[in-house]
Amino acid sequence: MKLKRCVETSVLLILVMLLASSCGNKEVSLSGAGATFPEFFYKDITKQFGDEYGIRVSYGATGSGAGIRNLQDLTVDFGGTDVFLSDKEMGAMPEVLHIPTCIGGVVMGYNLPQVDQLNMTPELVTKIYTGEVTNWNDPLIASINPGINLPDQAITPVYRSEGSGTTAVFTGFMSEVDETWRATIGAGKSVDFSKGIAAKGNPGVAGVISQTVGAIGYLGSEYALAQDIPSAKMLNSRGEYVEANMETISISANTTDMPADTRMVISNSPQVGAYPISTFTWIIVYKEQAYNNRTIQQAKALQNFLLYIVGDKGVASARKNYFSPLPEVARMNAINVINSMTYDGQLVKDITIKQ
């Protein structure tokens, strides 16, 4: 509780000081692009920030891979990604900061009109995506769903067509827990799915599932929750079949060992009751903001916006949009990362703009 009050006070004081130092710069605008996973949250919070402070912030939900490329190409102020950059990727760019903004899950959404609950295991997911299990009344599915009237219906697996952080989170989890998946499909933002239907973005996957009886596919939990797409209970590391909701997803982040740079995997948590495919989602920015003719006003506006996201209004927006907010340790780490941003080598937070 003491840590929570400390975090809230820190965010408020820093935000007030930074906004005061950058007021009067109504011509400044910001743009970002990337992960579709937090699209609802980012659309909401950018509008709130713009309405409150008169700074327009746009966000294009184009996929994590595109967001990273856009930041590399200097066409956006910030990128959105559901998977943190590797050391190799970091080494090929100027220093990049990762700011966690919320926690979400990747769920197996499905379309079976007469089936309102379903159990699923990683092994079974592998068999579906490799074409070994092709019908919903398969004995393997029935064996873990006693009492469920499974239809004689072909299974249509759905997957992402573009480079995707959601894909990276999902395939990373599958590769960790299932040897056959690791050997046949592997992990990454883009992998070779040989069976099923490809769809662009989480909205595309949600659309295909909704329109295709017998479909099953991985997508951000917030899309399933917001659009009433049923999702399977997934077997976790403790042998529990767990439904994805804000509570079970947040259990995965009950950790105090988050590194200072915030890059960590929280999938396959050993915690009781944890939904197993959970992840932070991050905004990425360059630490040094004096690049590509950027002004100190832009750097200040970006820092203000990031602090706003991890502040109390960002927490409320995350919850409203079916995301689990950051635990207090993660919020404090995020604030520290944001405050490390520089302009010409000087901390952005310490620079006062002359009016």
Description:
By secondary structure, the chain is of the alpha/beta class. The protein has 2 domains: 30-103 and 279-350, 3-Layer(aba) Sandwich (D-Maltodextrin-Binding Protein, domain 2), CATH 3.40.190.10; 105-254 and 266-272, Periplasmic binding protein-like II (D-Maltodextrin-Binding Protein, domain 2, 3-Layer(aba) Sandwich), CATH 3.40.190. It is built from 14 helices and 13 strands. The strands form 3 sheets. It has an 8-stranded mixed beta sheet with strand order 2-1-3-11-4-8-6-7, sandwiched between helices. Residues 20-25 have low confidence and may be disordered.
Instruction: Tell me, briefly, the overall form.
Output: elongated
> How many domains is the backbone divided into?
2
SSE series:
HEHEHEHEEHHEHHEHEHEEHEHHHEE
Please identify the top-level CATH class of the largest domain: Alpha Beta
- SS field, number of helical segments: 14
Count of individual beta strands: 13
Average pLDDT, rounded to a whole number, is: 92
The chain-level structural class is alpha/beta
Supply the CATH architecture of the largest domain: 3-Layer(aba) Sandwich
End-to-end separation in angstroms reads 39 Å
Poorly predicted regions are 20-25
Assess the beta-strand content as a share of residues: 15-25%
CATH topology of the largest domain: D-Maltodextrin-Binding Protein, domain 2
Helix content: 25-40%
Biggest sheet record? 8 strands, mixed
In spatial order, strands of the major sheet run: 2-1-3-11-4-8-6-7
Using the CA coordinates, give the radius of gyration.
Answer: 21 Å
Determine the CATH superfamily of the largest domain. Answer: Periplasmic binding protein-like II
